Every structure is written in C-alpha cells, then in structure tokens.
Amino acid sequence: MKFVDLAFFNIKSGKGGDGAVSFRHELYVANGGPNGGDGGKGGDIILIADEGKSSLLDLKLQKFYTAQDGFKGDIKNMHGKNGKDTIIKVPIGTVIFNADTNELLADFTKNNQTEIIAIGGKGGKGNARFVNSRNKAPTIFEAGDLGQDFNIKAELKVLADVGFVGLPNAGKSTLLRTISNSKPQIADYSFTTLNPQLGVSRDKQGRTFTVADLPGLIEGASLGKGLGHEFLRHIERCKIICHVIDMSGNYATEDVIKNYELIRKELIEYNLNLEKRPEIIVANKMDIEDSNINILYFKEKYFNKKIIEVSGLNKMNIDKLLFSIGSLLEEVKNIPLWEIKEENKEYKIYTFETDLKDIQVKNLGNKRWKIEGQDVYKIYQKTPISTYDNLLLFNEKLKKIGVYDILREKGAQKGDIVKIFDIELEWMD
Questions:
Q1: 167 annotated as a binding-site residue
Q2: Does 1 appear as a known binding residue?
Q3: 214 appears as a binding residue in the annotation
C-alpha cells in the first residue's frame, strides 16, 4: 500500500441561524412587545491530532466536510440551537494549509492537539434586540453570518529529530537498522525505501532521539522527479540532517563529491531554509577499500564540515555517530523551517489613508444598474429585506458605505432599477 502523505479537500463551517421576528400574544396583554430570539451559532470544523492515525488516506477519500448550520431564533426570546461541530482526526505531524493562498492554518505536533480551522457563523439578532424609544415594535432582524469556506491542503511530514538523506542505495536503511530498533527493508538495489522509516536510537550517555530513513533522492527531485516532493516534505521536520554518502563511490564508478553536491542542491532548491539546518556528513561503507581513497579527496574539499566515517554493515564507529547526533541535538533549536526568517530581507509596509470599500456599480443601460462587491454582499446577506423595517435599515447601510453617492455621481435617475444580487429596487432619490 502507498503511504498517503498529501491530501486536498474542502471544509465549510455552518451558517449562523437567522434571528426571529415575533411579538407577545398573551391573554390580557394588549399590544405585546417584540420577543423574537437570536439565531444559534453555526458549527465549527475542528481538527484533532490522533496518534492512532498514520496516513491521510481518509482525507484523500472524502473531499468535502461541512458543519451543521445554526437554528433559527424562536418566539418568547428563545435562542436557536447551535449547529453541531464537525471533527476531523489527523495524524501527528500533519500541517494544514489554505490550498488557494498557501497560508499555514495549523501544525499538529502532539497527540490530542485541537485546532478550529473554520469558525461557524454568528447567529443573527431577533427583533427583541432592536427595541428603542422611537420604535417600540420593530420588525428588524438579522440573518446569521455565513460560515467559513476553505480549500485545504494537508501534508503529513514525518516527526523525527534526525533525517537520513542521500542518493538511493547509499546505505541509509542498513545504518538505521544498526543504530535503532527499526527493521526497514534492505536490498542491493535503488529505491528500496519507498516510504519514511522511523527508528529510536540511544547514545552512550542515554540520550534518545528519533531517526528517519527517508526515500532516496535523485537529480531533479526538487522539481518532483523520482520520489521528489514525496521525500522532500518530510525532511522539513527534522532538526538535524545526516547526509549519508556511499564513500566507495559505488565501487569507484561514481564521484562522491559530485554526489554530495547534487543532494545539497536539491535540498536547497526545494526549500532555501534547509541549508540552515545543522548537518553531519556520514561517510558510509568505509569497510570497502575504495572508500579510504575517496575520503581523502572529500575531506580535502570539505575540511570545515563535520564528517564521521562509519560502516553500517560492520557497525564501525556507530557509537561515535550516535554521540555526535545526541550532542548536536542539545544545541539546536526546534524551529519549523516555515518560521525561519530570511536574513537581510527588507520589508516594506504599505498603509492606506482611507478605508477603501469593495463597491462595484455598473450601468447596464436602459435605466438599469447593478451593484456588487464584498462590502455590499455583507450587508445584503446580513439584512434580509423581508420586512419594511429591514428594508429601511438595508438602505441606511448602503448609504453609510457610499453606494448612494456613487449612484448619484454616475447619473442614476429617479425610477431607475437597481439590482443588488438577486433583488431589484427602484431608485427614488
């Protein structure tokens, strides 16, 4: 079975319930006042990290998640019931993005971590809320707010302290088996590891850490070739990169320096901040004769890097490698790559002197006009004109944001028809 670590789906929280228009009708109480209750809140979309889940397969199969709408307000000042929340469980290590803007919405790093991703709409007010000295019997009410609607990209990134990277068949799986309790598949051919393998290691000082053997890289992986992005997204979680190199050069047929630089290039091109991760170069397969020659050339070029010579097969120098990893982990900070700031980068802050409204007024000809825009839609959605009082309030809100001024400026005449989404009104100015 394929390890599912990327899923796209849609979530939509519930709409708030509408407020009610109602008046008291009690025996011996003439002209009872308003008692319409508020609408209930719409349900939220809530994600919870669950250590019992290991893939995003459920999210990949179900494309839409919706929460229940809030219920309408009722008579006698009774508020509508809140809509039920929808709960989605995800594996630990899941990162949630807005698929349209790539904005990070949540990062699940521990069991039972709970995040509200889409908040349900607020319930609308009933007419009991609008009583004042001038209007003792208002028929004003509000519709509930709309819920939030997101296209989601979910990525499952392996939670490990150390990531083993390198070309296929560099000996990463053998090394992981040697230093931990993991039993990954091992064979003498490329791409033995198709999914991330995890193991827990302990050094001589008793320090424990999680190590991930990640699928082998090839040239062009940052562009999606080979296992490409399926591999690279997992390395972003690791605090330390252990770059495992077959120092034998595959029995002298490959250039070990070129192999090292190829992988470094792919890591950097995928995510510039990867080069800021601490690195240990693990010169593997030092039990092979050609390795003793290649390591001399390699150290001459990379004299300033931390290089540890090992043999995963013969368990040579394993204690030294574990001690180096444990010591380095005590020094590094656990900062996700997406939170690392770019150095020497200038940011310009733009300010606006006026609060610009999204109002679009179009002359359709033949004495007809069309009004659109997000700010107009908010008023349209929140203030249904099913009562006369709401019609007056609707007009006042349009005046306040400048719709009337724009219509006058564009030459609207008395008797013209103004269409606002699915309603048509007569211009009486």
A1: yes
A2: no
A3: yes
